[in-house]
Amino acid sequence: GEDVEQSLFLSVREGDSSVINCTYTDSSSTYLYWYKQEPGAGLQLLTYIFSNMDMKQDQRLTVLLNKKDKHLSLRIADTQTGDSAIYFCAERVDSSYKLIFGSGTRLLVRP
Amino acid sequence: SQTIHQWPATLVQPVGSPLSLECTVEGTSNPNLYWYRQAAGRGLQLLFYSVGIGQISSEVPQNLSASRPQDRQFILSSKKLLLSDSGFYLCAWSARTDQPQHFGDGTRLSIL
After folding, report:
1. Which of A25, A104, B1, B37 is such that its CA lies 20 to 30 A from the CA of B82?
2. Which of B93, B96, B98, B108 has the most A C-beta neighbours within 10 Å, making it the best mutation to test the interface with A?
3. pLDDT at A94
4. Structure confidence at residue A20 (pLDDT)
């Protein structure tokens, strides 16, 4: 079946790196996404990775994909207080229109 | 550039009343359109999906319906709201089925 799991909460100090983890169950995943949600707002697409890639870097963001373990991570370098938000991992299975979302990881950045 | 608008941002409705939430997309044509619901502290659940005018696919049985009267307009409706319809409703669009989905700012719906 389709399932995406994330840890609920992560707290880091400003300036440190944050690593948010996600596991998925469907080996037919084609794209994996990271979205950011600030309080009371919609979801902002941060980055995404195609399943034939192992890594993608975009400024402070690094996505690592381990297909064997079905594990996805988002690393935020030099985390700032403005990075405090809920981060959602999502997978697209095959060429489906449907995204399967995790429950989100709340990131708290302490000054 | 493309933009997506949802309104209203917040809505408080009594049980049994009707509902109409509207979503419009600008800067693109023939987008795929989606309605999601986010329950408190949870991920997103896809409610409806549309690939074109008048074409609606429903993902889960429920008290809600969707319509697409124009190319870039997507409406979420109900004839009689239930308490369980409370939540945060998000509209999204994508250029094609295999392209990333982009979300609006959402509507927070509270049912009393």
Report:
1. A104
2. B98
3. 73
4. 98
Judge whether B44 is closer than 8 Å to chain A, CB to CB.
yes
CB contact under 8 A, B43 and A88: yes
The reported pLDDT for the residue numbered A2 is: 66
Contact A63, A45 (CB under 8 A): no
Q: Cα–Cα distance between B36 and B52 in angstroms, integer?
A: 17
Residues B22 and B107: beta-carbon distance below 8 Å: no
SS (H, E, C) B13-45: ECCCCCEEEEEEEECCCCCEEEEEEECCCCCEE
B101 touches chain A (CB under 8 A): yes
pLDDT of residue B82: 95
Which residues on neighbouring strands pair with residue A19, listed in sequence order?
A: A75
pLDDT at B109 over 60: yes
